[in-house]
Amino acid sequence: MAKKPRIKVPKKAKAGQIIQIKTLYSHKMETGNRKNSKTGKLIPRMIVNNFSCSFNGKEVISVTIHPAVAANPYFAFFAKVTESGTFDFVWTDDAGKKVPAQAKITVS
Amino acid sequence: MTYTKHVMQVAGVLGLGALLVACAPEQESTLESGYDYATAETQAMQDEDIDNPGFLWVDIGEGNFEKVEGEAGKSCAECHGEGASGLKGATASYPKYSERDGKLSTVQDEINNCRTSRMKAKAWKWESDEMLGMTAFVKLQSRGMPVNVSTTGKAAPFYAAGKKFYEERRGGLDLSCKSCHTDYAGISIRANILTNGLPNGFPTYRLKWQKVGSLHRRFRGCNKNVRSTPYKQGADEYTNLELYITAKANGMPIETPAVRN
User: What is the ipTM of this complex?
Assistant: First the structure.
């Protein structure tokens, strides 16, 4: 069942203000270290290995993720905004699947 | 969020604070929500909706609420209002006796009954993401309201059966629910702290499961831990037990979807 990423970005901010951005993404984050209890075979690794956020095309944060991160990864970070625009978020998993999301902010 | 605090809040309004607290039975005044046993980090996850992964499932429920399904061509929202506005506070009294079934009915039973008899759609499985999501979404409408289940009238025999189950020793370890959750609440069982075992936060996001799970899944886990054979989710035994422990939480605010370790 596909779940939508949850994102919290303030709708409005003042120029130069530092804002907090929170994201929650749904993923099972299979580590690759677990065994199938019936067959004894390793369950292949399937994690989100990269999360990135850019603002008006300029990178804000890029995170390389390793198997120790639990399911449904949550990221919170800060950004300084000087102009109105769009935050673009992308989660990339081991299969190469990219899930994008957007959030707009108006700066006055 | 303790029971004591809640009683005091109500009593304070009535101006009877000291009197009521003095009269409150000792055992009840010590009952605490699982929230109070959780670590500060876990509590912080629950405090903010954006930090709470349980809301990923609530989103599923919200999406399905507006979706037209089944031969009758209806959606939940058609009867219960846009965004479940008609269901505010509805779940606080569940599980309750249902004339239709002649036994207790849980929120899950009500959802599936609506789906099969009104929408003519397929019933959802108990532990499916759809069912967990819908239950969490519907219960979320009553968040903050006090739990208020009836244990009298037609529900009385089921309440008694639940109480019997709670106090009955079972499994290879010969433990009852009461042995841990009443007699030794607050004490560590290996790395976990035993809680009063109150269900006001279910369906809850459990960090160990890394997903949202139902109360009956929790029952099954507990039953397996004492080396007894668990019942199926939705079994009458578990529904009776659900009524008994929900009645213990009467008056406590609903926390769905809670976060627990």
Answer: 0.83
